[in-house]
Amino acid sequence: LFLSQAMxxxxxxxxxxxxxxxxxxxxxxxxxxxxxxDVLPVCGRMKVAPVAGTMQMTHVDGMEGWEYKLxxxxxxxxxxxxxxxxxxxxxxxxxxxIGASQTNIWAVQLANMIVxxxxxxxxxxxxxxxxxxxxxxxxxxxxxxxxxxxxxxKNIIRDVxxxxxxxxxxxxxxxxxxxxxxxxxxxxxxxxxxxxxxxxMGGFWKTLPDYSRRHIRISNFIAEYWDNVAPAxxxxxxxxxxxxxxxxxxxxxxxxxxxxxxxxxxxxRPQLGTYSLDGLVHKFKNxxxxxxxxxxxxxxxxxxxxxxxxxxxxxxxxxxxxxxxxWRIYSVVKYEMEKEANPLMRFVDVWTLTIQMPEFCLGGHxxxxxxxxxxxxxLSGICPRTKGVxxxxxxxxxxxxxxxxxxxxxxxxxxxxYCQAWPKLPWTKVGFHYQWECALSTLCHLEATGVxxxxxxxxxxxxxxxxxxxKPTSPPINIEPGESPVHISFPLASVTRPPxxxxxAWRERAGTxxxxxxxxxxxxxxxxxxxxxxxxxxxxxxCEDCLPEDEQPLANQKRESQDASTRTLALSSSQPQTQxxxxxxxxxxxxxxxxxxxxxxxxxxRFAFGLARCIASSHVVAGHLYAKSxxxxxxxxxxxxxxxxxxxxLSGFILFSAEMKRPTHESSFxxxxxxxxxxxxxxxxxxxxxxxIAKTQGEAPGMATLLLQAWLLQAWVPQVTEHxxxxxxxxxxxxxxxxxxxxxxxxxxxxxxxxxxxxxxxxICILPWLLVFVPLFKGIDMYWYHEHAFGDTSDPLxxxxxxxxxxxxxxxxxxxxxxxxxxxxxLMVQSxxxxxxxxxIMAPLGYVGLFLIFxxxxxQPPAAKLSARLSVLLPFQSMVLLGLAGLPGFQPKVAKWASxxxxxxxxxxxxxxxxxxxxxxxxxxxxxxxxxxxxxxxAVIAVHLVQKPAEALIKKxxxxxxxxxxxxxxxxxxxxxLGYFVPTQEPMSNIPDYVKLESEMYDLRLPLKVxxxxxxSVVINPSVLMRGSDELMIVARQHRRSHQREPVxxxxxxxxxxxxxxxWHSRIVMSAMAITYTDWNKWxxxxxxxxxxxxxxxxxxSTKNGTQSWRHLCNRDKYLPKNRTLLRLIVNGPEDxxxxxxxxxxxxxxxxxxxxxxxxxxxxxxxxxxxxxxxATGVEVLNPDATADGKHMNCxxxxxxxxxxxxxxxxxxxxxxxxxxxxxxxxxxxxxxCQDKLMSTYMPLxxxxxxYPGLAISGSAQAVFVNDTGATPNxxxxxxxxxxxxxxxxxxxxxxFAYRFNPDPxxxxxxxxxxxxxxxxxxxxxxxxxxxFASGLTIGGEVGDQRVMISYGAGDxxxxxxxxxxxxxxxxxxxxxxxxxxxxxxxxxxxxAAPAPAPEVKQNRTAWSRIMRGAALLGLGALxxxxxxLLVTSHRNSRRRELAN
Length: 1445
Known about the structure:
The chain is α+β, with helices and mostly antiparallel strands. 34% of the residues lie in helices and 19% in strands.
């Protein structure tokens, strides 16, 4: 703070009027007393200690001094208790503290002020952590003559669990009941026997002496929860050695560990981690109320604390405590104590007190500066005494009223500078575990000085902030801050709740159960009608051509051979094959030509794969829906992906069997074209539908991707594989490759003997295990592929993962395995009884093995997400395949039973292709059994109205070879044409592009797009900056969210779990554009925006001096033990950039952004990973590929989220506004290190935060320098203009304000505007409140005609800007400016906190909707039942005709 040169200047100094401070009266003011205004009495024993005020800094004799001025209606001030006065006050007193880490800090600070170094964590073998320190007990003796104190007893008891870093369950109810009474008993009678001491076990010295009036005793009892208070009080009441006669003063503060359990940081009482927010607050309130009777009795006139009384203190406040849980816990204590407090059981609002401290926290705890001032408030109620006790005189506070804090580490910034070099080492070595331990290791104490020197500032009035200025070379500007209160209104009229895309609009309008069932009914009816027509046609033999070939008589040998040779499609139905190429194959008369079998055909000649196909394809669909959390959370669903390799195996098995049974003489080219008949029509139809849906959601791929998909080549190009339409159809690319080489490989397999076949099968089953063993032997993480995020292809690791997951070459061995299994089947001796028994049980055993793997995590193979895909499950899947295929002439009983469902195989391919199309049409995100009925009905329609008519048409075409070739060629024209003509609906709000809010005030949509982006991402939170008068710099965030639930490869502390991944795809994009005065007038006057350039991704952002790209960031994990779920937040790029001019290199820019730490920079703790602020300097916006290294700005808390800092330039240096309340400004060097921290307070904001503790005040955008006095009559001085926002933690809604701060250090706040009318939009997240987020601020134009542009993101949907003249913005700083529209101050709830407006809730369904729902249920039952009956009957009739022929 430049203490040697700092001074204060009052606004009245120019008039020569300096007011001297009024005198202090040693008499203390109790409740109900009044005092003349010219005398400021000392606050005494009040039931609710007044704490609202301002902490003002002054200088005495060139040294820093502080004065705390209480705000009205308080009519008193706090006396200052120096060390000597404190010892006089506390003589004969037993100070009892009950709490956790914060009361540990209070106890250590108080003890060390009595005797420096009395408690030292290194010497006394303990840690200030609030978990393991069960008891800290120390006794001092005061010399009657000299007044000096010495230690006569010390006992520190630590939990034996302190030798372990694990805190899980350490303070469960059962364990506390067993452990705490035994430890607290030593406070009653002292240490009775020798015990071990040393690292992790605490220390002790001497034995507890008999009580004397010359003694001061300080005891801290561990109490994380309210039920820990009773054992502590019982131990005090059972005190021996005369300590019952001591004057007891108790201080209790509980609450932090309820919050810690809710945040799953350190579950010392795991059952609290299962509560919801409301449930935990209710539990805290009930626990407090249950503990209050014992506390009130203890603190009553007849209780042990009748002389000195008790203090119930709230938790303290830190700037980063923004979550609702913090202020709701605080509010419960405040509300309850305002009802229960009395002069002997006082309430001290430490939360409000620390809000007004111009001080940072140390890891969520108070600094020595803040702790000492808190003791001044405590002592004001503890020390009042009307007469001396025994030999001890009456104690009074010091006469001075200016406090000086003496010590090298009193202030938090001093601690940060000195203690950051101390390593966090085990207690067996020299060092500290926590920053606050380092701070307490040297003495900090308070000295009072009585008189201000001449020409110091007079005490600031309520509502003003005091400027602490630095003497620069030129006189600094000092401007008196304003006093207008800050008004807020969350439900502004500009709030909108728009749909984002066609899909969300459809689901919003059709999301009732009635609509779902009506859709199911209609689709099922159509499917039933289609099937009924087909069945009746078959029964009457009206037209043989209308029948599917697999249902025509098997006596027709030609058709049978075609059917058998082509029923081979993986992941599809066994579609009937057509002789499409014009090549007539040579067909043997019977299977006996290859394998001797009985003359009469047996049912075993037809494979019973229909039901297995249906189960497998349904499981694949369920797996995809499970990953999107669109289906019930049964972990076995997540293994659906493992059936894709099984279908490759099935395809190889059936094709080889058909080829060996009836070989064809055709080229590979002809063979591929003939096979394509069964897949391409339905695939093409699905592509067209998927493209239309993708266009409505703004996610349509580019032209190159569409062309690759038209020719089934998407799996060969890893850069596009994960960005395609109907992405699940990648497997068709694999089939094309396998069909090309099928003939060649089939000849090799056909010639193989039994030993060769078995050896090949064993080798193929071992091959996927290389994914496990190779990393193991190389010392690489077995789960290395987790570094890949779906859709990323920016480095070789991503390309390798995509190759292994989707490339046809990665699955060729599985297709060959299917062929080998078919060959093995022909080589097995079907008459062997053992073989037959084995075939009977093979399929059931295979399913049982897969079921165990899917359902029991302990049975999962290592690296399963990749190894199971390639696939280590091949043995079990082979068993299923062989067991259902049986042997030539022998069909197992399970296969016979399953063969009745062979009709299902015609529809499994259609189910697979249409799954996501149907899901996007379905009215709700989450699906149930009705969706699968709907999907099956759509599959029936697709097969009979698309696939089979297309096959028949191609079959009837003479030169059908060229027809087949024309299909992908036609799609190459149709898909780009649709992509061009079908409009793309971007996921934006329905706020108009151009809105005129007031005279000369416009709200505009910024048409920002990213070059080459087709993944549905949006550009939000732009930061804008004018360079000169006609160039606009734009740096923004490209954002997209995805969700994935994954039960595979998910572990938490060695236990299997189910992972739910919330992935934020984020990156920074940038560009620049010329915008003239004419462009502005055209845009603002007519609503015609200028042509904005395509934004380019910032590829040059790197880490480790440019050697690595900025990705692979630390995750944020949260484990829910109740359902063994691991919630993972995965952010794969930087967020929310802010751009300013670089002071080092003209023409370049500095970009500050928030991000999780790259794993190359930090060791990641998934539970504690938090966002931090980073900065890249010398960035060239028009050259985003130029390398720029991101530096961590190590200025704040490394274990708490740091974001929303406000950058600005001052005297060619970078400065950042770190926090708004207190207003903290830091200078940051190019390498990211921070220097001076300048602090000031602004009373209107302090009062607002005191009244509504649930509101979090944070910075927004960047600050700009303003020197246009003609346009700013409400501030006719140079100043900085900036923005801040207030967030309602209950529903994450925001309101925004502009504010002005002084142009010279310490940059104190001058004015706060009225609320800005930004347009809030409804985000995609269900139940979230509409919001806007200001992200950029710039001023352009000539002096006297300057425009302000405030850029912001609306609901994470789009980028917008509020544009207005600087003079118009100045009117918002006028105290007479109207309050915000629809102004609504939050009402107080039962807990004393200000609740947020509840999100809009849909109305209950009407009676008409219930009638419609009932009718739909009846219709569904009436139509789906007959549909199933028709399908089964049709299949049985077909089988009868086959047997008859």
